[in-house]
Amino acid sequence: MKERVESIELQMALVQQELVSMRGSTQDLPQWLKTAAISMLGAIFLQTIAAVWWASEITTTQNNIKEEVFVNSSFREEYPKTQQDVIVKLTEIQSENRYMKEMLNEVKNKLRFVDITPQNIVPK
Question: Which residues contact residue 50 at a Cβ distance below 8 angstroms, ignoring those fewer than 6 apart?
Fold first, then answer.
């Protein structure tokens, strides 16, 4: 049993020694790994910039569509009133046209009975 305890104590001492040596040493990464990490950070940065640009383009497109829909919506809301006004004006023009035709026919009928030969012209 005594040997077993001594063996465990020896193993504990070795582990403690390894821990001390690991704490004191610095791990140096290979150059290719450092370069790859920097390249990956650069790629992530570029992707972030591209995503922001893409999102701003979508936002601009959405705003343009909203403006067009607003213009078309207001036109569609006002269209029935505008159409009604046009129909009223056309009806007025038609009634004026009928009245003018009647007046013209009346003038024609009256002119049929007028003698167009000169009546009291004194010769010179």
Answer: none
Q: Is the pTM of this model over 0.70?
A: no
Report the percent of the chain where pLDDT is more than 90: 40
The whole-angstrom separation of Cα 9 and Cα 25 is 25
Q: What is the DSSP letter of 39?
A: H
Single-letter code of the amino acid located at 13: A
Mean pLDDT across 103-110:
90
Give DSSP secondary structure letters for 49-86: HHHHHHHHHHHHHHHHHHHHHHHHHHHHHHHHHHHHHH
Residue 26 phi/psi, 5-degree rounding, is -105, 140
d(CA 117, CA 70): 70
Highest average pLDDT, of 5-9, 71-75, 84-88, comes from: 84-88
Amino acid at 95: S
Residue 110, CA atoms < 13 Å, CB-side half-sphere: 6
Model confidence at 35: pLDDT above 90: no
How does 7-18 read in b/e, with b if 16+ C-beta sit within 10 Å?
eeeeeeeeeeee
